[in-house]
Amino acid sequence: MQNLHQVKIPRRLSKFSGAKSNGFVLFSSLNGQTGETRPPSVEATTSVNNVSDVQVQSSIWNWRGYSIRYQHAGNSGPALVLIHGFGANSDHWRKNLPVLSKSHRVYSIDLIGYGYSDKPNPRQFGETLFYTFETWATQLNDFCTDVVKGEAFFICNSIGGLVGLQAAVMEPQLCKGIMLLNISLRMLHITKQPWYGRPLIKSFQNLLRNTAVGKYFFKTVATPQSVRNILSQCYHDTSQVTEELVQKILLPGLEPGAVDVFLEFICYSGGPLPEELLPQLKCPVLIGWGDKDPWEPIELGREYGKFDSVEDFVDEAPDLVNPLIESFVARHAALPASISTTT
Questions:
Q1: What's the CATH fold of domain 46-332?
Q2: 220, exposed or middle or buried, with CB in 10 Å at 0-12, 13-18, 19+?
Q3: What is the pLDDT of the chain when averaged over all its residues?
Q4: In angstroms, rounded to a whole number, what is the distance separating the alpha carbons of residues 182 and 46?
Q5: What is the chain's alpha carbon radius of gyration, rounded to the nearest angstrom?
Q6: pLDDT greater at residue 130 or residue 335
Q7: Where are the beta strands (DSSP E) in 30-86?
């Protein structure tokens, strides 16, 4: 494996598999993924879903020495890259891929550190942070270049929205447009913490990251019952919290290295904010938000709708997300990425 010094870093849906049924936000406490076996190479693929004769395949992409799992479906139309949130994975989009792939080339990717992608130990990079939005944005842009073979629309949930925004700022020619579904407000960012609370928050983060407390905490939530309890808080319709869903969320969190990634990210209070990235975009943005989201208040999210790059802020139900994606892509697919504008 390469270290960070060798990896050069440039300067929540329709019947979500792991999302709240009363909003768009993805459950974001553990790495979520299926228990399927990894394909041995990018050429070798395994069918993981088949809905209405649409086959969804799983493949491995070698990114700078790391194995990255992604899923894909569809052979024609504009390219869409679906980007999951914290603790999630490409299976988050398992019920969107078959529908969207009927008229699009659709990809969902496991960000490095999540799902069944490699999880390099963050401590091997010394004082240099590895699990950052710049790292993930670089991964996303390289994915578009190497696998998608060109420009794409980014469909993002939670912290995946920061990844998509950062990627579009870094390589604007690759992004045709971005749809943000309950983008993370990053309320633990250092600039959003009250001055009097910063020392306490920092001490707590250090306690989690540098002592056995963090691993004990992770162990208490990485159980079937704990995952089920958390998902039951996320779903308005608790009948959707099936054993299959619990396992998709739980299993990757039990893989070697998952706990270190989890603890590293919850201690990450730096990096960009949505309000810093949105003004820099050269592509159109559509924001969707579930009004019953208990973690990311819609009142704060609406402030993002005021940026010039945002063409609309939509408060919709999860079962309308696929049509929203399709109409957004149709409006902008004909325009080159470099000149795509809001309408």
A1: Rossmann fold (3.40.50)
A2: exposed
A3: 80
A4: 31
A5: 19
A6: 130
A7: 46-51, 54-63, 66-73, 79-83
